[in-house]
Automatic annotation (TrEMBL):
<protein>
    <submittedName>
        <fullName>Toll/interleukin-1 receptor domain-containing protein</fullName>
    </submittedName>
</protein>
<dbReference type="InterPro" id="IPR000157">
    <property type="entry name" value="TIR_dom"/>
</dbReference>
<dbReference type="GO" id="GO:0007165">
    <property type="term" value="P:signal transduction"/>
</dbReference>
<feature type="domain" description="TIR">
    <location>
        <begin position="6"/>
        <end position="92"/>
    </location>
</feature>
<keyword id="KW-0675">Receptor</keyword>
<dbReference type="InterPro" id="IPR035897">
    <property type="entry name" value="Toll_tir_struct_dom_sf"/>
</dbReference>
<dbReference type="Pfam" id="PF13676">
    <property type="entry name" value="TIR_2"/>
</dbReference>
Length: 202
């Protein structure tokens, strides 16, 4: 599980929502390409086809807004034609028009984005896991220690499966990892793998 590329197809009006949903997903060691961010960096949306063609998975965010956008169906159709799996993320199942009607996806619950992100991570772990090398079976995030003058790389490994992570979330048990050099401890939300706080350190 390193170096895989995910393309996120979504309506322009949903950019903020998409950024929120993928903010922690982006910390994992694979590429997350959000369509509108790529467009804002000067490309035209039409020219994202190259990006799409090189993706391992396309996540299609289906909302009332996306139903009005011509791009989503085009990008889904393009991905499927290239044999790239499409994971729909939808507010309600009936938004799965056209190509993905039959595909079971992730339900978007705006009132409970933690649960939505958790479910998204479940599916991503299931879809991308077989691509990972056997020597690194676990999902992980790696970041430089943020204590002043430390900067040592810290790795949080997800040793538990998604079911156990959700139980931890329900019991309010955070994930933690310590920096080997300065002994700062970092805490993460087990549902979203979002950073919560740092404690200690020399
Ligand atoms: Zn440190």
């Amino acid at each position: 599980m390193t170096g895989e590329q995910i393309f996120v197809s979504h309506a322009p009006a949903d950019l903020e929502l998409v950024q929120e949903l993928f903010s922690t997903v982006k910390n994992f060691p694979f590429g997350v390409h959000i369509a509108l961010e790529e467009v804002e960096s000067g490309r035209s949306r039409k020219r994202l086809e190259g990006r799409l063609a090189n993706s391992d998975l396309v996540v299609a965010v289906l909302t009332a807004e996306s139903a009005k956008s011509q791009w989503i169906n085009q990008e889904i159709g393009y991905a499927l034609a290239k044999g790239i799996p499409v994971l729909p993320l939808y507010e309600s199942g009936d938004l799965r028009g056209g190509f993905v009607t039959e595909i079971e996806g992730v339900t978007l619950d705006r009132e409970n984005l933690s649960f939505t992100v958790f479910n998204l991570l479940c599916r991503l772990r299931a879809e991308l896991a077989p691509l990972g090398a056997l020597s690194v079976p676990n999902w992980y995030i790696r970041f430089p220690c943020t204590l002043a003058d430390c900067g040592h790389p810290v790795t949080l490994e997800l040793e538990e499966g998604q079911t156990k992570l959700w139980k931890r979330y329900e019991h309010g048990q955070l994930l933690d990892v310590s920096c080997e050099v300065c002994e700062s401890t970092y805490y993460f939300d087990p549902a979203t793998i979002g950073f919560v706080r740092r404690e200690g350190g020399i």
